[in-house]
Amino acid sequence: MFAKLFLELTEYAFFRRLVWKPIYEMLARVLPVSEWQFMNYGYVPLPEEAPLTLEAADELQRYPLQLYHYLASRTEVAGKDMLEVGSGRGGGANYIARYLKPARMVGMDLAANAVKFAGKTFLQPNLEYVQGNAEALPFADGSFDVVINVESCHAYGSVPNFLKEVHRVLRPGGTLVLTDMRGEPGLKLLQQQLQDSGMTMVEETDITRNVVEAIETEEPIKKERIRKLVPKWLVPAFEEFAGVKESAIHRDLSSRDLIYCRWKLQKAG
Ligand SMILES: C[S@@+](CC[C@H](N)C(=O)[O-])C[C@H]1O[C@@H](n2cnc3c(N)ncnc32)[C@H](O)[C@@H]1O
Questions:
Q1: 83, 98, 185, 263: most buried, per Cβ within 10 A?
Q2: How many separate helices (H) and strands (E) can be counted in the chain?
Q3: 28 exposed, middle or buried (CB, 10 Å; 0-12, 13-18, 19+)?
Q4: Of the residues 108, 110, 129, which should be mutated to test ligand 1's pocket, given the most ligand atoms within 8 Å of the CB?
Q5: pLDDT score for 216
Q6: How far does the centroid of ligand 1 lie from the alpha carbon of residue 147, in Å?
Q7: Residue having the nearest C-alpha atom to atom 15 of ligand 1
């Protein structure tokens, strides 16, 4: 209920713009640790999705990385120009650049510290990180074939502004793949905003169960990382933020007070 309440408070654009940026700036500043690469709740694939083979060094990141893999795999990425809006600590854009081989992968985030961290940590010839705002993308019209957005748009002052910007920077026929969570009214609103985006809704899948399973399976890894990285008195707060079993986010997703969905939208060709 707490996670749902917080997300509902963030119903107000000014509140969202006010609270999220300092949180993400602070996290990247105080914990510039290369082992911590993601800030999403992870994903366990559907039975019909092929298991993901990873290099040994990436195994520790399996669950958050799977959220990227099974979202990005909804569309053709190899050889394309791709943008991530809300790239956070950069692990997702790095995974896509290395494994799915777009010609160009740009990770963009509002938090300057997160962008700096990602740019120092992940070095690939087809990968770059830039600072920018989802509501005013710093790119020319028609610059990308694919835009990806992972667990980020709940933080934007205006989702319609963000979608308008995605539509602008996509080439004709380009794709937006997006995933996030909302309570019931917030979900209806987001669905309407996606319908009104000028892009065609191609797929919508409720993946709440898959995210809950990831939270439960990944718990020992998260607990161990937090124990290693943060002072003892901050452990409960970090466990709550990271989402462990019985955290507010785990409870709200398990009870379906929060619903987690993924979407694919297409700009007209
Ligand atoms: C929960 S994190 C997810 C990060 C990343 N997608 C991942 O899965 O690890 C949300 C991210 O959205 C970014 N964000 C929030 N508001 C933004 C905005 N207006 N424009 C761009 N990024 C924003 C935050 O700085 C944060 O890094």
A1: 83
A2: 10, 7
A3: buried
A4: 110
A5: 97
A6: 14
A7: 155
183 within domain boundaries: yes
Structural domain span for residue 112: 2-208+258-266
Q: What is the pTM of this model?
A: 0.92
CATH number at residue 131: 3.40.50.150
Q: Cα dist. 183→10, 19, 21, 204 in Å?
A: 12, 19, 22, 16
The answer to whether position 216 is within a domain reads no
Q: Is 68 in the pocket of ligand 1 (CB under 6 A)?
A: no
Number of domains in the chain: 1
pLDDT tens digits, residue range 18-48?
566 666 666 666 666 788 899 999 999 998 9
Q: What is the pLDDT of residues 84-141, one digit of tens each?
A: 999 999 999 999 999 999 999 999 999 999 999 999 999 999 999 999 999 999 999 9
Our answer on whether the CB atom of 94 is closer than 6 Å to any ligand 1 atom is no
Domain contains 48: yes
